[in-house]
Prior knowledge:
Elements: H1 7-18, H2 24-39, E1 46-50, E2 52-54, H3 70-80, E3 85-87, E4 96-98, H4 99-115, E5 122-126, H5 135-148, E6 161-163, H6 166-174, H7 178-190, H8 197-216, H9 224-233, H10 251-266, H11 273-305
Parallel strand pairs: 1-5, 2-4, 3-6
Amino acid sequence: MCDQFDKNSINLMEKEILKTYPNTYAFSKNLAEQILASKCKDLPVAIVRPSIIGPSLEEPCPGWIENISALTSTFVLIGRGCATAIRGMREVRLDLVPVDFVIDMIICTAWHVTLHRDHEVKVYNCTSNACPFKWGQMIDAILKCSTEMPLNDTLWYPDCSLIANRYIHRVLCVTPRVLPAVVIDIFLRLRGSKPMMMKLLKNGNKLFSSVKYFTMHEWTFQKDNCSDLARKVKMFNDSDMVKLDLRAMNWEKYVAIYYMGIRKFILKQDFKSTARQRLSRLYWIHQITKMSGITILLWIIYCIVY
C-alpha cells in the first residue's frame, strides 16, 4: 500500500490515522489492546501496561539494559554534551519503571489471572505514579552523573535545560551548540577527518522532537488492579521475592544506576582517569565560549541601539 503513495501523502495519512496518538508505536499498542479486550474475555488473559521501561534496579544486576530507547539516547546525548536544551516542562512527571519491576508484575499478573478467572480482560498499569519523578529532576540527576562520572567520549561540557517556550528553546538550541559544531567540523575537515558534530546535532534534534510529547504532558493512571494484586501477593511468606511497590524509590540513585548501566552495557566503556581531565578542559572551553557569545551579543545590541 505504501508503495502506491509518495512520502508527503503517507505523512498526511499518518497524521489523519494517529490523530491524538503521539506516534505509531502507541497507536499499534492500543489496537492490540482492543483486540485482546474484545476477543479474549473468556481466556486467562490480562494486559500489563508499563510506562517508560528503564534498566534494572537489582536483577539480574543493577543497571542491566539491552536496548537503546529514546530515553536512553537522551541520557547519552546529555552525558556527551550534545544537548543544550530540550523542549519540555520541569514539573511534568516522568513515568519511569525499572525493567525488573515490570517483569515481577507480569509474573504476578499471570499467576493471578490463572487462578482468578474473570469474564473481562483486566489492565494492570505498571507505573511510578505512586512515587512521582519529574523531568526537571531527571535532567539535574543526569548532569550530576555526567560531571561526577564523565563518559570517555564526552564532546562538550554537559549543560542542558528544559525549556517550555518554543522560541527560547530554538535560540538555546542554535546559539550554544551550532556555531561551535560548525567550527569543530571545519577543523575536522582541515585535519582530513570526517565531520560529525552537525550530524550528531541533527540526530539529537530528531530524538528530542519525538520525546517532546512526553516532556510536555503527563498522565495519571488507575492503579486499582495493581494495588489489589500487591495486597494478594503480600499474603504469601515469600512475597519479598517480587517487587511491586515503587513508593520508596530513590530516583537520584536510580538515575546513577541507569547512567552506569548505559556506560557498561550500551557504550561498553570502562572509566578512564583521562575522562575527568577531558571534562575539565571542556569546562573551560565551555565557559570561554559562553563569555564570548555574551560579549558578541552585547556588542550587536550596542551597535543596533547606538
